[in-house]
């Protein structure tokens, strides 16, 4: 192999090593659509499970009035939250699973071959806590921490299982999630999804390897743990 051939081969290998796949991360988790005999669903709308954080002066009846226009439908909310022992006792900061009427996302029609068509899709809303269907996958997870300590939170450094080959760059921000509880259908018992609680945020530092990165925890609601899950922030 002559020198010119070696140089050419080296250039090809170098270019291949520098090519980084363009990873498209989910902007929002998919909706968990349900049916309820007690709720009328108008045309163009659908009923989905939402996560609601109880505020001061809230009651199940008041939440039902705002969500469904009828305070008497408070039992619908009660049935989706079996951890609530007494419907008269809910407290600020409690997390409730609440059915909610939302506008249907438009369907993307299949374009004919040779005639691509641009379709405008409604941008998913920003989210914090959410219900993840069984098929939902997270972008990555926290695999360890840089310093040896008993507890980790805001301002600590961690290692994540995402790197250059996953399309991650310095400055990328991720929301940190943790499994809270499973959400079964109140009548059938069928698993609808898993409630995921947002517990913090992190930012990727300049230390980005092929399949891992170092990140700074920039915000935490509670202690951050190994195994916490990640979604790219909008």
Question: What does this protein structure show overall?
Answer:
This protein has 234 residues and is of the alpha+beta class. Among the domains are: 45-103, Membrane-bound Lytic Murein Transglycosylase D, Chain A (Roll); 135-234, Thrombin, subunit H (Beta Barrel). The chain has three helices and nine strands, in the order αβααββββββββ. A six-stranded antiparallel β-barrel has the order 4-5-8-7-6-9. A two-stranded antiparallel sheet has the order 1-2. The model is unreliable at 12-20, 22-28 and 111-126 (pLDDT under 50).
Strands, helices and their partners?
Elements (H helix, E strand, L loop, with lengths): L2 H16 L26 E9 L6 H9 L5 H6 L15 E9 L26 E3 L7 E6 L11 E4 L12 E12 L6 E18 L4 E8 L8 E4 L2
Antiparallel strand pairs: 1-2, 3-7, 4-5, 4-9, 5-8, 6-7, 6-9, 7-8
Task: Give structural attributes.
234 residues, Membrane-bound Lytic Murein Transglycosylase D, Chain A, Thrombin, subunit H, 6-stranded antiparallel beta barrel, two-stranded antiparallel sheet, 31% strand, elongated
Kindly summarize this structure in a few lines.
Helices cover 13% and strands 31% of the residues. The protein is built from 3 helices and 9 strands; from the N terminus they run H-E-H-H-E-E-E-E-E-E-E-E.
Distance between the termini: 50 Å
- Contiguous low-pLDDT stretches (5 residues minimum) are 12-20, 22-28, 111-126
| Helicity range | 10-25%
- Sequence of strands across the biggest β-sheet: 4-5-8-7-6-9
- % residues in beta strands: 25-35%
CATH top level of the domain at 135-234 is Mainly Beta
Largest sheet: 6 strands, antiparallel, barrel
DSSP, total strands: 9
């Amino acid at each position: 192999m002559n020198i010119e051939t070696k140089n050419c081969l080296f250039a090809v290998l170098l270019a291949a090593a520098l090519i980084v796949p363009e990873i498209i991360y989910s902007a929002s988790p998919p909706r968990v659509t349900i049916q309820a005999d007690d709720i009328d669903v108008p045309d163009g709308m659908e009923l989905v499970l939402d996560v609601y954080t109880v505020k001061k002066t809230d009651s199940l009846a008041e939440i039902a009035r705002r969500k469904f226009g009828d305070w008497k439908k408070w039992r619908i909310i009660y049935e989706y939250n079996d951890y609530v022992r007494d419907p008269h006792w809910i407290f600020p900061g409690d997390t409730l699973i609440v059915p909610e009427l939302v506008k249907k996302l438009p369907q993307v029609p299949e374009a004919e071959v040779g005639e691509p068509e641009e379709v405008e899709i409604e941008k998913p809303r920003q989210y914090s806590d959410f219900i993840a269907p069984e098929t939902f996958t997270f972008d990555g997870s926290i695999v360890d921490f840089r310093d040896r300590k008993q507890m980790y939170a805001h301002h600590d450094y961690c290692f994540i299982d995402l790197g250059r080959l996953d399309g991650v760059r310095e400055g990328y921000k991720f929301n940190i999630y943790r499994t809270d509880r499973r959400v079964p259908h109140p009548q059938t018992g069928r698993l609808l999804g898993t409630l995921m609680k947002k517990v913090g945020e992190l930012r990727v530092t300049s230390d980005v390897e092929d399949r891992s990165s170092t990140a700074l925890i920039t915000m935490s609601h509670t202690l951050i743990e190994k195994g916490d899950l990640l979604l790219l922030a909008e």
